[in-house]
Design goal:
By secondary structure, this protein is mostly helical. Helix content is 71%, strand content 0%. It is rod-shaped.
Length: 42
């Protein structure tokens, strides 16, 4: 059962990370303007 817990933790972590990346992309799209240089993603 230890592997199951690890898998669940990994799944949760990856889901949180994916949502964080999506939120960052949306923020960049919403806040992008010609006079605001954006840091490259990745």
């Amino acid at each position: 059962m230890v592997m199951k817990e690890k898998d669940e933790e990994l799944t949760l972590f990856l889901e949180m990370r994916r949502r964080e990346i999506e939120r960052e992309k949306n923020n960049i799209l919403l806040n992008s303007s010609a006079d605001e240089p954006q840091a490259p993603l990745g």
